[in-house]
Design goal:
This protein has eight helices and four strands. By secondary structure, the chain is mostly helical. The protein has one domain.
Length: 198
Amino acid sequence: MWWQNRRSFLWSIGAASSALVVPRSLWARFRVRELDPVRLRAVADAVLPSSLGLEGTAAAVDGFLSWLSGYRPGAERSHGYGSGSMEIEYLPPEPTPRWEGQLDRLDELARDRFGADFAATTLEQRRSLLRNEVGDDPISTIPAAAGAGHVAVALMAFWFGSPAATDAAYDASIGAGRCRSLEGVAAKPTPLGGEGRS
């Protein structure tokens, strides 16, 4: 009968779709390897505020790599509630291969122009290479890190959207996006003492 064919069809669809669900632990095995932290740190030194210092820049790179290690292409990003749209947005494809290629290119350009790998060049040399690659036109809006065209822009977008960047902008320990108890909600944020200024 028609309903038996329909039932077997639906069963086969369900079985096939359940096979596509991959546990997170197994997903990690098939991920593209992480970006080289040494080269990424060299980019961060060139594009993030110098006021971060060694520890702040290292923390920004570690946070970026941690975010990237949990990246799931096609995962739901936004439901559009409150924005006038009910469309669900999804994360774009895995950016790591493209960004790794850009780091390779920076190495090639640095060797051709300065005779050293990108991470071994001076800060000004790195900035000049990045200006040529990314462009030095004013950016009116920083994109979401996942949608950034260049790894340098992705790193900036990730940091400037972080609680640390908000603290630095206001020179106070605000902790944007972090859960706080109701007891201290009326208290003014503690000043950073100038450490967060860029």
